[in-house]
Amino acid sequence: MQNVTVVYEAMNAMVNFETMKSQQVIVTGGAGYIGSHTVVELVGAGFEPIIVDNFSNSHPRVLDGLERILNRKIQLFDVDCCDESALNGVFESCLKRGNITGVIHFAAFKAVGESTAEPLKYFSNNIGSTAALLATMHRHGVGSFVFSSSCTVYGQPEQIPVDETAPFLPAESPYGYTKQACERLISDAHSAHAELNVTLLRYFNPIGAHPSGDIGELPLGHPNNLIPFLTQATAGLRDPLTVFGNDYPTPDGTCVRDYIHVIDLARAHVAALNWLKDQNHACEALNLGTGNGSSVLQVIEAFESANGISVPHTIGPRRPGDVTAIFADAKKAKDLLGWECEHSLQEALKDSWNWQKKLEQTS
Ligand code: NAD
Ligand code: WQD
């Protein structure tokens, strides 16, 4: 337990603490963008999330945002998930208080460009943390595992919408390779360990923020993803947005993606945990997307109409490595989990802008 620092103690008079103790869920990377929104949804569904995060790509003030939304504190272990002995301490501490219902593993590095410059950092963190976590779960007999995978495993699929039977194509980046490798590692562990039940959740493009503006995406430095760059450019904090290419074989020439509100994505994790509880040695890959493709120009238009503000932008050359078009066939998630997206693109873009404005007011 030496490396384990309990920063926040869970306490709340408004919830039945006895029930929640038996529904503890370990959320690695729970201080990050998708993890923090999932923590909110887990509490709403009666689970007791326990965050394990080393703040390598987040800031402890996320905990303040969570407290404002939830009106309670969340327990956090400031631990590196590659450190198996520290993870062991986390599990022992939780098990003293009750059951561990499952583990959601968000913790990873995710910057595609950086992964090309520093592949070893990505291999060791993303694959190392997954191996350490699986070993710790096995040691303590914890069986339910929800993994953050990505549509990047498909590359440019031959058919869109893409379903889960599409083959993996050679990864475009070391980051993409770590997601493919982790899926392989997890399915091998599943074959070897009878207690393991797994969902491999392949996210499409998460955007948006909690409507309160208390939590959202906090990209450190120059944002690589479309929406953080777009909101910062619109706020005047960056040069105009460059649309990366308008000569693709798509209706308006710009790339097409499946943008999913982060709250819908977070709710899918709750649905996955509930589903896993009833399984007996399952391992399923599931696409999490809206099923709709939007081009870069359509996103700009939707942002402008949702927020009544124009987005400064220019057309530039293609970005190397971009796939032309990809969006999800999310039928399997609907059939298995009873989950589907409820938020529109415009709602997500409204929440993204609200988050950006609040960030400026508070920083
Ligand atoms: P994020 O960087 O906001 O959150 C990741 C969190 O994990 C951060 O708080 C970071 O501090 C923490 N972390 C990283 N390595 C750690 C380690 N070794 N030990 C403890 N904590 C560690 O990223 P996000 O956007 O919330 O992504 C979450 C997951 O979803 C990642 O696995 C990512 O690859 C995957 N994913 C993200 C997207 C996306 O576009 N955001 C798309 C597909 C998949
Ligand atoms: C979206 C679209 C760009 C920025 C990445 C990862 C993928 C997954 C999701 C984790 C593209 C265009 C962008 C800009 C632009 N992450 N764009 N100008 O590339 O679909 O996927 O995030 O698993 O692995 O690769 O997302 O947000 O970078 O780009 O025109 O300044 O916006 O060309 O068409 P992408 P993105």
Order of helices and strands: EHEHEHEHEHHEHEEHEEEHEEHEHH
Q: What class would the helix/strand composition place it in?
A: alpha/beta
Report the principal-axis shape.
globular
Strand ordering within the main sheet: 1-4-3-2-5-6-7-12
Strand content: 15-25%
- Ligand list: nicotinamide-adenine-dinucleotide, UDP-4-deoxy-4-formamido-beta-L-arabinopyranose
Give a nutshell description of this structure:
The chain is α/β, with parallel strands linked by helices. It has helices spanning 17-21, 33-44, 62-70, 84-97, 112-117, 119-140, 174-192, 226-234, 262-277, 296-307, 331-337, 345-362, and strands at residues 6-8, 24-28, 48-52, 75-77, 100-105, 144-150, 197-203, 205-207, 241-244, 256-257, 259-261, 283-288, 294-295, 313-316.
How is this fold's topology laid out?
Layout: E1 6-8, H1 17-21, E2 24-28, H2 33-44, E3 48-52, H3 62-70, E4 75-77, H4 84-97, E5 100-105, H5 112-117, H6 119-140, E6 144-150, H7 174-192, E7 197-203, E8 205-207, H8 226-234, E9 241-244, E10 256-257, E11 259-261, H9 262-277, E12 283-288, E13 294-295, H10 296-307, E14 313-316, H11 331-337, H12 345-362
Parallel strand pairs: 2-3, 2-5, 3-4, 5-6, 6-7, 7-12, 8-11, 9-14
Antiparallel strand pairs: 1-4, 10-13
Helix pairs in contact: 2-3, 2-9, 4-6, 6-7, 8-12, 10-12
Bound molecules: nicotinamide-adenine-dinucleotide and UDP-4-deoxy-4-formamido-beta-L-arabinopyranose (WQD).
